[in-house]
């Protein structure tokens, strides 16, 4: 006798191809709270029986499914939506079962038409209802019993009983009573419903240690508070500091990554850990844990959240090196292997060995770092180079944290090959850095944004576009041209609903290129800086204008609602952003020639816009301080942009 | 502490997207023995370490994997093939692990180039080799130990040791020693390697009961043997009889599906079961079990296999009805529900209720029917209407049988919606009937064949094209036109490597249409027939010619090796069939206007053919009894086909 273990047995419906889903349910897809998720699946059975197909969903850990009937799309395809009202890790599945009553009713109707005898048929129908009543409870049971008995009551006329069989209440009631023994269930798929900030965030990175009174005095959390007013005025909603932990002394780097620091050099904040402690401790020069909490509270009063930079690596002085030597790779000469990313060398940083046999303690300890700071009040984490740590670790760590703290947000700083970047996102990272910086003409940019927004990646990878970082100063920005800076920022801030800058270098255009590299000279990574926060010619008002547009326009608060137009001028990039009901429509046109006036026709995706080809409409430039307005018609319209005046239009569309 | 159960732990490689595969490994893909299967997968790790990626395969049930290194295709994609030498149910998976030695060697080379000190590096390399030696056995262990010690032997010069590190034998040896604790494995996917007959079969259906000496005498297996010589001469390699079991008497049908049979009526062979027995018994009028075995042996002497028609349904007289009343649906009036396929009614047939609570016994009993006949010597089954029985049952039943009897072949007679047809094939059915019959012009036919051969369906669905069956007489064939019959047969036999006819009605063009239906009047399903086996004007020689071409041309022995050409005449369909190395290339052109001469240019897929656009080539018509030959050049060539002469060219291509 062959084994029947795991056989579906009496379950006669096949459910297949549940979409969207990732890797057979190994990884969650993502949605933002308030948005519905639309799920499709194929379902069918042998024979001519009718089937009931339902979408099930529940918060992971709950035992009760919420059931939504799926509607037929034809060709054995079904569709339904669900929309939970609280964030969290959910799961969904598709259920299929034979609709015995519906099948009977359908056959009954045909027999009634053909004039066949109906007495026995009515008894069969009554029995189907009574069988459902057996599985029901409470009022449902009571009503079904009544219906079933009426159908079998031969003292009523056949016509009377036909009326009962067709009762809409009966149809609805019986559709709710599924026999679990006959119900086929698809695999179960996970989905993360994230909070709004996860999908719409505007990051501002700065070094608190550069907030001191002068270039030789280490700044503090307390002094960093002074910047919050301006950061808020510019419209950012997340501030993020480089690591705030004790910095190692062994192999400390000097200015410009020098191997021969002076005794006054402050070192790289990413060389984490010293005698004072490690990843759960604070560099005393910045202040105390209480000072940090106070900073978080002050930021919260502006409705700004504080992001922490988590870098899982250690200075040679980190307590883990002594306490857990097995977490590091030791060389035959008794030294620990330092980090390398050829040709870059990080002599002040030891990587963690994820192949350690002690991996269980390692994973728990690393996760406890997040748990500790979440307890302190941090809900947003920027994770440094996650792609050089075990990808399976991140998947476990983030999903475990999300189960307890669905509000936690993780930004992956991973400039790496696509599959690795995407795997981090599938594994749970909320947002990811991108190649935005290196897309420097309209065709490259368009192709890249289409890959991000039109491919399967949109189900799990939420991009975050940064024009600059402390590590990356693209040659475009090495020339301090206002149009380049604002053009790049407008692109970042309107192509992606998640964006950020490394300030104040950005808004002050105070970058100093390292000769021959895409890096900053005299980088803040290795030294204290003193910024002229109000330097003349700064971009603060321009940035504030862009962010104010973001903050007041739902169309810019999602990334995937984009449609590109075309232009006969190859320097123009043109795209439409709109919300689902088209009540907010913005048309962005950027002249990516940062130094010359360009003009030409742009060709708009009028069908996406719901605008007839002969209909006039108004476009008002929200980025222009005087908000110029034009009346346009048809899909081709003329545009001229002088970078000395403005690199871009951000048009609000009004149907006339 | 969060649970680490099922976490990948020290396994740092991610393996994803293994292709081809079906529904996450729920169903097997199919290949024919002698063909290799090419598998692709994505694999990557964190960091810059190199990885080893291998394709693993084994016969299901075996504990040992066969390991094939996969080659990189770039962008973290890998590929390899495997090709087993015996048929069976196999499984495959992709393994990924860090290539510690390769990673070290790569870094070592860069350090050597840069002039860095190498002493410590050599010790590290030696340790990696010694660690691998620990896991190795026998000679491999011995050699690795030697390599490792040499690398660490400081009495040798650095240059000498560098030479050792670069030894090709060492590289090969160490790549074979995978540390299972660090090895990441994809899910495991099943694949069926089928025997040749599964992919290349030519079926001939006939009723043994019509092989008697006259129309009123029931024919026998013994008499059916007399047809084998002709069937073989026509080139068929499977003969198949309708069910050979006892036929019920209750509600027996008369001629033309009549409900009022005479006492002499023989009934439908599909009304299975009577006092004499059920699915494991033989209708005594046909002969004994020994007679049936003798028929199988006689067919085998022609290298023809005998297919059995399995119909899981019962006449009211079937022993199961009394022995297992719970396997049927009883009505409140004490009768059993008979089968219906509105508007068709099968009063003589009771369907089986797959929702019975006794499903385990039912499944085992049904499977035992196959087991019984396999024991008798039948290896090929044509399954009647499988789509009206539980799909999950078929999946279990066929896969279980395949584990013991991979030589068993199952043809699904399922004219139903695509998802159901495809599910039967995924579930294990070797071949499936198709909509071929209802594709009656070149554009419909081409679209249909492209769906079958270019979509994912090609991984699991092997079509079988039949111009006619006892149930289906398309209106095209109701007009007894030689060109139509041979045109349809040439299409079936060259578009699909699996084909069949219901004879002798087909080769004698002895169909009598039922008025207004796609069915035969006075159908053999309900009565004995006497055929004039040598009727003048028969198609036997023409069919023999087509089948001889099939039997001698590998290009026609596969279905998926097709490329379509075009024509400026919409009545022409034109396609290339060729084997993998292009040593056998056939070009088929059919004039699907069965009554008028058509001419025009055909445009050939020269690139597929490996023929230059200026190169001449010869085409010789194998179907033409005089084998006319023409010299063609370029991708457009003129064709004229008069259906009175021939509906088609089957050109053999010869490069000049």
What key phrases describe this protein's structure?
Immunoglobulin-like, six-stranded mixed β-sheet, 29 strands, TIM Barrel, 656 residues, 3 domains, homodimer, alpha/beta, globular
Short description, anyone?
The structure is a homodimer of 656-residue chains. The first copy, chain A, is of the alpha/beta class.
Low-confidence stretches of chain A: none
Extended strand count of chain A: 29
Oligomer: homodimer
CATH superfamily of the largest domain in chain A: Glycosidases
Determine the N-to-C terminus distance of chain A: 75 Å
Question: Largest sheet of chain A, order of strands side by side?
Answer: 19-18-17-16-13-12-11-20
Explain what you see.
Two copies of one chain form a homodimer. With 656 residues, chain A is α/β, with parallel strands linked by helices. Chain A has three domains: 2-193, Immunoglobulins (Immunoglobulin-like); 209-244 and 282-312 and 359-553, Alpha-Beta Barrel (TIM Barrel), CATH 3.20.20.80; 562-655, Immunoglobulin-like. Chain A is 28% helix and 23% strand. Chain A has 18 helices and 29 strands. In chain A, strands 19-18-17-16-13-12-11-20 form an eight-stranded parallel sheet. In chain A, strands 2, 4, 5, 8, 9 and 10 form a six-stranded mixed sheet that branches. In chain A, helix 13 links the parallel strand 17 and strand 18 (431-433). In chain A, helix 1 (100-114) packs antiparallel against helix 2. Chain A is globular. The model of chain A has no long low-confidence stretch (mean pLDDT 95). The interface between A and B is large, with 58 and 58 residues.
């Amino acid at each position: 006798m062959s084994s029947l273990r795991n056989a579906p047995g009496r379950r006669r419906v096949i459910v297949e191809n549940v979409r969207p889903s990732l890797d057979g349910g190994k990884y969650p897809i993502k949605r933002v709270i308030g948005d519905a998720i639309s799920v499709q699946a194929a379902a069918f059975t042998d024979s001519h029986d009718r089937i009931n197909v339902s979408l099930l969903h529940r918060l992971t850990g709950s035992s009760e499914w919420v059931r939504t009937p799926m509607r037929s799309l034809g060709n054995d395809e079904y569709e339904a939506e669900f929309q939970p009202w609280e964030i969290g890790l959910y799961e969904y599945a598709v259920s299929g079962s034979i609709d015995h009553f519906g099948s009977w009713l359908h056959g009954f109707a045909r027999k009634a038409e053909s004039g066949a005898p109906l007495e026995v048929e009515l008894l069969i129908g009554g029995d189907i209802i009574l069988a459902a009543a057996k599985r029901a409870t409470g009022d449902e049971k009571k009503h079904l019993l009544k219906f079933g008995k009426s159908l079998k009551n031969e003292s009523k006329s056949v016509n009377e009983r036909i009326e009962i069989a067709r009762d809409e209440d009966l149809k609805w009631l019986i559709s709710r009573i599924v026999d679990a023994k006959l119900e086929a269930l698809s695999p179960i798929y996970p989905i993360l419903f994230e909070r709004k900030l996860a999908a719409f965030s505007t990051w501002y990175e700065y070094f608190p240690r550069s907030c001191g009174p002068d270039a030789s005095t280490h700044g503090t959390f307390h002094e960093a508070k002074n910047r919050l007013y301006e950061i808020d005025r510019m419209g950012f909603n997340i501030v993020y500091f480089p690591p705030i932990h004790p910095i190692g002394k062994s192999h400390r780097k000097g200015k410009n990554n020098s191997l021969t620091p002076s005794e006054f050099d402050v070192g790289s904040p990413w060389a984490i850990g010293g005698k004072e402690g490690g990843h759960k401790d604070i560099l005393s020069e910045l202040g105390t844990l209480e000072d940090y909490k106070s900073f978080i509270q002050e930021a919260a009063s502006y409705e700004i959240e504080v992001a922490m930079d988590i870098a899982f690596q250690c200075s040679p002085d980190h307590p883990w090196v002594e306490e857990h030597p097995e977490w590091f790779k030791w060389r035959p000469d008794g030294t620990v292997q330092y980090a390398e990313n050829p040709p870059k060398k990080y002599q002040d940083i030891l990587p963690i060995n994820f192949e350690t046999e002690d991996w269980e303690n390692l994973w728990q300890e690393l996760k406890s770092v997040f748990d500790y700071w979440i307890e302190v009040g941090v809900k947003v984490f920027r994770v440094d180079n996650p792609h050089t740590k075990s990808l399976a670790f991140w998947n476990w760590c983030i999903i475990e944290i999300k189960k307890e703290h669905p509000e936690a947000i993780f930004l992956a700083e991973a400039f790496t090959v696509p599959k690795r970047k995407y795997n981090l996102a599938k594994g749970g990272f909320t947002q990811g850095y991108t190649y935005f910086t290196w897309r420097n003409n309209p065709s490259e940019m368009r192709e890249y944004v289409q890959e991000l927004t039109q491919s399967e990646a949109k189900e799990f990878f939420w991009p975050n576009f940064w024009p600059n970082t402390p590590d990356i100063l693209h040659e475009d920005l090495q020339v301090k041209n206002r149009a380049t800076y604002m053009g790049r920022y407008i692109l970042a801030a309107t192509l992606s609903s998640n964006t950020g800058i490394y300030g104040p270098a950005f808004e002050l255009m105070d970058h100093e290129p390292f000769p021959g590299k895409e890096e900053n000279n005299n980088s803040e990574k290795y030294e204290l800086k003193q910024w002229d926060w109000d330097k003349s010619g700064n971009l603060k008002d321009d940035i504030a204008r862009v962010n104010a547009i973001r903050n007041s326009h739902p169309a810019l608060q999602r990334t995937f609602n984009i449609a590109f137009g075309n232009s006969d001028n190859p320097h123009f990039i043109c795209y439409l952003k709109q919300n689902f009901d088209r009540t907010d429509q913005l048309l962005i046109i950027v002249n990516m020639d940062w130094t010359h006036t360009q003009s030409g026709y742009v060709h708009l995706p009028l069908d996406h816009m719901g605008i007839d080809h002969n209909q006039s409409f108004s476009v008002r430039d929200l980025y222009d301080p005087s908000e110029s307005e034009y009346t346009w018609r048809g899909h081709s319209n003329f545009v001229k942009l002088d970078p000395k005046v403005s690199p871009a239009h951000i048009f609000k569309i009004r149907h006339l």
